[in-house]
Fold each of these.
Amino acid sequence: MAVQNFSPALPASAGSAPYPMAQPGYGKRSAPDQLPVHPDDFALLPPRERYVAGFIEHLPEGAAMSVKCLAKQIPLYGQQAIASALTALSVAGHLRRVRCAVGVGDEVRWVFRTFWSRTARDNEWWANRLTPGAPQPVRAPLPVPVTASVPDSAPPPVVPPQRTALEPAPEAPSPAYLALARLGTVDNRLTLSAADCSALEELAERWFARGASADYLTGALTAGLPVEVISPPGFVRGRLIEKLPPVLPSVPTPPPVGTLVPHVMMECTDCGAPGPAAALPDGLCRSCRRPKTSTASAPEPPAERDVTALVAGLRDLLKAP
């Protein structure tokens, strides 16, 4: 008897090309706080959506998530079918598309990400995870323990002696102080005392504020030394002032994987219209949630089903016990 394969997505052949990755900062991002993997994670979905969900689940972080790219890698369905499947997965609570602002000042740019959750989530969960500063559930305060009353004739309780507050630990030396203190280990002509390092620390901190590292500062101060340095503190002070590096513009870098930046805007899974999470329930804007009327006289292909009816069916399945 033939053994059926219940895998949600077909395994890739050994000679297939690797899945294309998006640019750094873009592409697939796994949502936090997911439940462990279970064979029935996508059991409530129709066959097409279950297949696409299984395929997305196995994609690596940062994989390209455009409809065109997914349709190219899933030959069973075309772009329109993939777009309808993604819409259904958004309604089922597995997917949300967002726009994130990366950078500061005039260097802000928008990156587009698709957050994926193997565990189906409702709109409130997505709004709390994707909207910084969203109100979190308030926990009830712990009950105050009630102690038994002590009779008047009972002796007063003995209060144990309280510990005196410990003195604060001394602060660790700053990177600027340590860099100055280590100059003597690189070249003994620039040996500084503790008082010298404290006096020059503020000048050295300006180097670090402009992006210089400890190695860069050490190399600039010890390069081309004269045969004899009469006053190491005065010599180091002069070089700290004369060779102060210029101010470099900050280069925006994408945040680490899984990190959400403060400026986040959700995007309609169907048409891409941006908006706050409250205006995009199920990840869809108002126009995309309306029933779509077909203007073409030709019947719809069998692979392309009514998204509105599919959405209603998914909601009923999610409500089932």
Amino acid sequence: MKITMAHGSGGASTSELISNIFAKHFKNEVLDRMEDSAVVPGSSRIAVTTDSFVVTPYFFPGGDIGRLSVCGTVNDLLMSGAIPKYLTCGCILEEGMDMDDLDKIIESMAATADEAGIKIITGDTKVVEKRGDFGGIMINTSGVGFMPENVSLSPAGCKDGDALIISGNLGDHHAAILSGRMNIKNEIKSDNAPLGEMVDALISGGIKVHAMRDVTRGGLGTVLSEFANASECTIDIYQDKLPVSPAVKDFCKMLGLDPVYMGNEGKMICVVDGADAQKALELIRGSKYGENACIIGNVSTKDKGKVVLHTGIGGERLIGPLYGEGLPRIC
């Protein structure tokens, strides 16, 4: 069965679509009321974020647009130190989309939300006429998280002597999406994953975390450039410490890609007090999705707004933000 314009009419077909797919998978005591607004318990300080997802193909090795839309928004909340609580789901469906594909995507969203410990409490669905190849579905998710007391993280928080830890291998998601679009056969899978367990381990473990960011579009180079500029510091990273899987290394060599600028959807960079670096690394490696974490560099105040990559042959390369378009669209 295919999506038709009638599914966006607000009538019986819309009700059937919501009941048979969205309500079936997102079932909880708040959403089941089917009210125009979800009324939920609050907090003194909250973090709020929103993101939209248009990736093609919407099924890819290691994930799909549904899992991606939950992970992306949950991780944005986590990077501010918040505890993710609630998620909204807005879907724009293209006329002609296969209903079975939609069911799989929404089922994936529900399973990922359950893994991340967050509830999908409200949403919206629209159907549009076929307007070209954007993958059949676009998803917007907005997230709300509660801020613990005494937690305040910022890209401007990097300090002299801090250590930088990346939570795992770079470039997996970017390479998986590009492989799918170019029909390149390999074993690379997307890393899309919620990072709540490792963030909780750091905060509950008493680690002095000064900044965190999930490494998505623009890659590690762009994130570190933002940190260096916001904190007016120098960030030194070391090429031989950057974790990249052999398969992604080969993929990059074949297509001339740089892992420093490749997108990820299940990796974070955290900046911690240098004295806490080893303990923080152990906590991340002991968490789900953090087994390949590495300390990749350090912070100093010798210059303002500079990121330096120290190469394997002893050279130095200045790293700036990504310029131009980072192909392909990864989220």
Amino acid sequence: MSARPLVLVVSPGDETYRGYCLEQVAAAYDVVLLTGAEPSWEKPFIVDHATVDLTDPAALLAGGRALAERHDLAGVVTWDEWNLVPTSRLARALGLSSNSVEVMRACRNKATARTLFARHGVPSAASMKARTLLKAGLATMTVGFPAVIKPAAFAGSIGVIRVDHPEELPAAFAFASQGANRSREDTGVLVEEYLDGPEFSVECVTHHGKTTAVAVTRKHLGPAPYFDETGHTVDATDPLLDQVAPAAAAAVRALGITDGVQHVELRLVDGRPRLIEVNARIGGDMIGHLVRLATGIDLPKAAADLACGRAPDLIPTRRGAAGIRMIYPDTSGILAQRQINTPFAAHTPWLRQVQWIREIGDPLLLPPEGDLFTARAGFYIVTGRTTAEVTERLDTAADEITLTTRADR
């Protein structure tokens, strides 16, 4: 029998974007898995599993209880946005460490979060809920233009759109509503003040109510009016971290989070941080992997440590930088060609990964017909000494990548 603590992971995610999380946790813990599909790539990293319908709260709870009867669990953790609330409920039912269900619900619902930010004096954006187009129009009379229309409880910038003029509102409200209707928690739409400034995220770790900002991620967005994320860079020595860390910690505190890893999104408006949202899990788009490449800090292991009541190791062991860039087509269509210059890839050590996620013949749909999930053909990751060097290398690699689409007939 292994002497290592045993942690239950709820919903491992897909191998492409979350495989590193499970691998890093399994390096320190024995892992049992609660998953919606029979394990495949996960098998080398787990000792047991239960397959349940993760969209059914009762089934998820029953599956977790069954695993707890077979194993002496030290903690329960998830990095899946959709399962934050059920995982908290499961941990509490098993008598294991967790934030409360109410706290996780507040993190999932942007309207609730805005209310708590205001109550605790955390600068964010003016926000009003709108169930109908009429109410959205009335809300814009308060928040003004430009405004942001978004689902109250979704993720991945899906359904988020900027509106500059009143005549754009009907189409924008329909776009946001389409995203909101996919939520299992709240199908409402928010009308918010547009925060005009560069966007960042702060990768935080909270232990017993004390939040440590371990890295700041500089975000790159696609063309307006959408907010699709096209890339990220992390620099271990980024001076911006000290500037935005207090606001991120204040936002985490306002939501009542006591333990866990947080991905806190904000913008700098006139040089001052304004909160967008707090995600109570490791950031997506490989951001946790970038943090490790740049700083050496292991966020998946930290999340498991906290779930098991242990203090995480947050001491940086590297002082570098890393970046990811998503590969998108210029126009929607059928993927006709995708390739990278093979000699370049083979002889470029700072090009850490090139990952294709679409095959020839697959449709690639940009907004408004699609979203970031339907539009991406892949991504690539580079490392360097500084943000400037990483950015230069991202541009260099882009010139070696070919992606073309053809019209769908």
